[in-house]
């Protein structure tokens, strides 16, 4: 088990926790009561950040850990760190306007793809050596 990969995992969970808190704050600010999921467009953007981040975590966590195990934990943590920066930029941009989410989305998506493809290569290399 890699402490670097574990750190990135904990930081990703912390980022997600902050995003969840932001939804609650936006509900109060924009007066969108539970269980309503629509209302003020500003609230909807904050909610979309939370939903999209959850969707991305499903791909990110396994790819991060597989890459770290089969390829290199330090490289995995570095790429995972780039994913974190991308998700933070995505959230910050999307909170302001939907058009401003693109750069962050691209950084985090590219990071996930690198982790996933790297994992597959590492797994295949491991199988070939058997």
From TrEMBL:
Instruction: Report the source organism.
Output: Cylindrospermum stagnale PCC 7417
Compartment list: Membrane
Q: Which InterPro entries match?
A: MAPEG, MAPEG-like_dom_sf, Membr-assoc_MAPEG
Q: Which domain of life is it from?
A: Bacteria
GO CC term (a single one): membrane
What protein name is recorded for this chain?
Putative MAPEG superfamily protein related to glutathione S-transferase
Annotated TM spans: 6-24, 57-85, 105-128
Q: Which GO terms describe its biological process?
A: leukotriene metabolic process
**Molecular-function annotations in GO:** glutathione peroxidase activity; glutathione transferase activity
Which terms are listed as keywords in the entry?
A: Membrane, Transferase, Transmembrane, Transmembrane helix
One Pfam family recorded for the sequence: MAPEG
Q: How does it sit in the membrane?
A: Multi-pass membrane protein
